[in-house]
């Protein structure tokens, strides 16, 4: 079986905003997001000569918009942002922190709307203000906040296709954080630095393998120290993700032994926080780690090991898929059935293999009918072909012909479209 490459998860730090405390002319601590700060919104409207009672209606519209389309949410932001921009332009520095928070939140909505350019424009405004704060006030928390904004913009720029620009922003963020940690002894910034290394590694992994490995190693070194020496167990999930990133890269480089070693480390972490009784938020990550390792060790190869890993993943994924699960959960469950079917056949269990294949087909057909993604079509065609081969091995030639016909029915339109 041709190995399926394990997709590297971009573990860039999730976008978040750091800004001065609301209501102060001098930068301060992180504040609550503007949409939750009704009092601040009322004050801004009053200062702009508008009725502060409008705040309640605006907050209500925002709450409703967040249940709908991103465009509806953006419309509310577009309505209120000019109020803050006008106040700041009029010299009302106490509203700068609110403007920063608003722009940072609006950027995230642009990203959800697949509008990377819009997100970049918002992050540019955030960075302009934060760079000035850092120049005016020599404070580590402000420098760290600026570094995070560089990373947030880097993520948006990478989505827009500018990897070089994104890499430059990551380098700016890393330079700030390294200075804070190594020169100023700000150990509380170690996690931020590790996140930056990890995100930068994910960004360069396709173009520069050695740099990516070095960056992953730097992130791993920090998180291992925090978790194992300092007892900061809250960073265990970040360490697991870094292990997964490095494992995926080593797998792409055909260093299967090295990759398996790092998947084992990832699995050890997730198994310690995921129980049979309560799966928890990391159960899906554990199931994916089982499958990623299964792909590396076979089939063909350690077929029994693959079967064991797939069985473990299936137990988790079946429980996760029994509720209102995301399509990705069901897709992984289908993959687990498929890998397990291949292993079962190689272990001399052809009929059990067909049962597993049928389960995979049921899921993938449902996904394809609901969403029609190209990925679902490709995977479904592969499983159809596998089912056809298995049916033929069982002398079910009519069944084999039916599966081949279904595979052709999916692939033929795609060939016509792509030429």
Question: What's a quick, concise take on this entry?
Answer:
By secondary structure, the chain is an all-alpha fold. Helix content is 74%, strand content 0%.
Could you characterize the architecture of this molecule?
- With 419 residues, the protein is mainly α.
- The protein is 74% helix and 0% strand.
- The chain is built from 17 helices and no strands.
- Helix 2 (54-65) packs antiparallel against helix 3 (70-89), helix 9 (209-229) packs antiparallel against helix 10 (236-252) and helix 16 packs antiparallel against helix 17 (397-418).
- The radius of gyration is 25 Å and the shape is globular.
- The two termini are 26 Å apart.
How many strands in all? 0
Order of helices and strands: HHHHHHHHHHHHHHHHH
User: N- to C-terminal separation?
Assistant: 26 Å
The residue-averaged pLDDT reads 86
Q: Low-confidence spans: pLDDT under 50, at least 5 residues?
A: 1-35
Question: What structural category arises from helix and sheet content?
Answer: mainly alpha
The percent of residues in helical segments reads over 70%
The coarse overall form would be globular
The helix count comes to 17
Measured on Cα atoms, how large is the radius of gyration? 25 Å
**Biggest pleated-sheet summary:** none
């Amino acid at each position: 079986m041709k190995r399926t490459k394990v997709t590297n998860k971009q573990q860039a730090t999730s976008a978040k905003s750091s800004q001065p405390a609301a209501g102060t002319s001098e930068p301060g601590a992180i504040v609550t997001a503007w949409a939750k700060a009704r009092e601040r919104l009322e004050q801004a409207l009053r200062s702009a000569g508008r009725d502060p009672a409008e705040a309640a209606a605006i907050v209500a519209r925002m709450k409703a918009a967040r249940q709908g389309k991103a465009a509806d949410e953006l419309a509310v932001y577009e309505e209120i942002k000019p109020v803050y921009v006008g106040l700041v332009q009029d010299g009302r520095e106490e509203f700068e922190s609110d403007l920063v928070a608003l722009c940072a939140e609006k950027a995230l909505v642009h990203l959800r709307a697949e509008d990377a350019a819009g997100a970049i424009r918002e992050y540019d405004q955030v960075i302009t203000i934060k760079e000035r704060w850092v120049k005016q006030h020599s404070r580590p928390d402000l420098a760290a906040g600026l570094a995070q904004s560089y990373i947030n913009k880097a993520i948006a720029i990478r989505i827009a296709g500018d990897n070089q620009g994104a890499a430059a922003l990551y380098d700016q963020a890393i330079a700030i954080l390294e200075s804070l940690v190594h020169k100023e002894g700000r150990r509380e910034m170690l996690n931020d630095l590790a996140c930056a290394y990890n995100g930068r590694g994910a960004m360069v992994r396709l173009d520069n393998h050695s740099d990516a490995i070095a960056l992953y190693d730097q992130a791993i070194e920090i998180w291992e120290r925090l978790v194992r020496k300092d007892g900061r167990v809250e960073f265990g999930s970040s360490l697991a993700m870094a292990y997964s990133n490095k494992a995926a890269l080593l797998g792409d480089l055909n260093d299967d032994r090295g990759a398996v070693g790092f998947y084992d480390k990832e699995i050890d972490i997730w198994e310690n926080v995921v129980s049979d009784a309560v799966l928890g938020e990391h159960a899906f990550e554990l199931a994916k780690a089982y499958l990623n390792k299964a792909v590396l060790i076979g089939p063909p190869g350690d077929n029994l090991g693959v079967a064991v890993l797939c069985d473990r993943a299936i137990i988790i994924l079946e429980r996760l898929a029994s509720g209102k699960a995301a399509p990705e959960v069901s897709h992984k469950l289908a993959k687990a059935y498929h890998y397990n079917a291949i292993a079962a056949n190689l272990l001399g269990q052809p009929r059990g293999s067909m049962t597993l294949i049928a389960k995979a087909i049921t899921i993938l057909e449902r996904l394809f009918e609901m969403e029609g993604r190209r990925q679902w079509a490709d995977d479904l065609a592969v499983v159809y072909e596998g089912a056809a081969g298995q049916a033929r091995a069982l002398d079910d030639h009519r069944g084999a012909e039916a599966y081949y016909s279904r595979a052709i029915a999916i692939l033929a339109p795609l060939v016509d479209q792509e030429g």
